[in-house]
């Protein structure tokens, strides 16, 4: 409940646009990040893992992402390092 309220409400309060997917599909997510130049990415750990492990991620320009937020479960050092390599412009 906290993240459902805090993330969208804070974004709307400062005038940011919000991109919400009805269903997670990695290709669609990557296309939307590319199209809308997403800068802040609040991801749940399974999506972080999908980004880290999927070879298709390298086919997309994700350089617009400045911040990746993830919660609800620990990521672990190895996963964090992999995400940093895939998204070098982003702070985790």
TrEMBL record:
SUPFAM superfamilies: Acetyl-CoA synthetase-like. It is an enzyme of class 6 (ligase). Its EC number is 6.2.1.12. Signal peptide: none annotated. Gene3D superfamilies: 3.40.50.980. It comes from the Eukaryota. The keyword Ligase applies. InterPro entries: AMP-dep_synth/lig_dom (IPR000873). It catalyses: (E)-4-coumarate + ATP + CoA = (E)-4-coumaroyl-CoA + AMP + diphosphate. GO terms for molecular function: 4-coumarate-CoA ligase activity. Residues 2-89 form the AMP-dependent synthetase/ligase domain. Keywords: Ligase. Belongs to the ATP-dependent AMP-binding enzyme family. This is 4-coumarate--CoA ligase. It comes from Rubia cordifolia.
């Amino acid at each position: 409940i906290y993240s459902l309220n805090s993330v969208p409400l804070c974004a709307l309060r400062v005038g940011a646009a919000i991109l919400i997917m009805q269903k997670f599909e990695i290709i669609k997510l990557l296309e939307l990040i590319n199209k809308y130049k997403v800068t802040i990415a609040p991801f749940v750990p399974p999506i972080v893992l999908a980004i880290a492990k999927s070879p298709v991620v390298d086919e997309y320009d994700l350089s617009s992402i400045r911040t990746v937020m993830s919660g609800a479960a620990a990521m672990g050092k190895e996963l964090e390092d992999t995400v940093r390599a895939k998204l070098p412009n982003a702070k985790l």
